[in-house]
Amino acid sequence: MAALLPTATPTRGPQDRRRYPSRPVWMGVPSKPIQAAKVVTIAFIVLVMLYPFVYVIAMSFASREAAASGGLFPTSFSLDAYRSILGGDVVTRAMLVSIGITAVGTTLSMIFTTTLAYGLMRTRDVPGAKFVLVLVLCTMLFGAGIIPNYLLVRSLGMLDSYWSLIIPGLISAFNMVVVRNFFMGLPSELLESARLDGASDLRIFTQIVLPLSKAVLAVIALFYAVGYWNAFFNAMIYLNDTTKWPIQVVLNQYVVQGSALTSIQAPDQPPPPGQTLQMAVIVVATIPILLLYPFAQRYFTKGVLTGAIKG
Questions:
Q1: More confident residue, 295 or 176
Q2: DSSP string for 149-216
Q3: Is 11 among the domain residues?
Q4: CATH classification of the domain holding 279
Q5: Which of 29, 41, 50, 102 is a plausible cystine mate for 228, CB 3.0–4.6 Å?
Q6: What is the pTM of this model?
Q7: How many distinct structural domains can be found in the chain?
């Protein structure tokens, strides 16, 4: 009788699991040498990635003697580079231009992107919505090219105008699709109940849809802001007046192209070393947009993944 009774299967502990070859290697507990090797590898990767940023910031504060001596890291610091570029009018004016373009462009892009996404989410109710959606998606696959875009901007009279940096990229098809999919993931019962209560589409859009979509809107707004801030190619093509250059064109002209830095310095101060001036311009052009990331970081995963999966 005892042989007929079922026997209980013994449970396997962590030590017993290592003895069974059927268990995958990556699921086992790594040994201490392997853990130490992982820590050393990750620390090395972090050091390699952070060193260029720390070096650029440190060299922007380097003194004349430290910049002339070279080395991996400056030993003495000074604010001469920042006094020189901020005392002149080129960098400060370019910063104001970039801030204005980013603020106005992001605001208009969010307005047009959200309204278009809300209209295209109702393909059954809006006549021609499917056709417009196909046209928008086609822009992700086909582009007009530089010359047709230039001819279009010239025919619209936007050459040498700030609108040439905003209107051509007013709506991103990818961002619109993400926002549309997020809108389609909202509870349809909530929208239908609002319509039964007599709410108009504008009221539903502004008081129900937008407040429930703060996550994706914050992420898309950051995408637009970074795009407007970093754009320099359109400014090089459409802007002939150098006083209208944004900060990225100044950065490209004086750092990447290696133009003379005398025009961006304060006239009543001795010129600092060219390397410190270049690093200072890089820091000034990078820090403002980096300050936006902490405010939108918590929305990244929820906004992008939900908007890309739902619908």
A1: 176
A2: HHHHHHHTT-TTSGGGGTGGGS--HHHHHHHHHHHHTS-HHHHHHHHHTT--HHHHIIIIIHHHTHHH
A3: no
A4: 1.10.3720.10
A5: 102
A6: 0.77
A7: 1
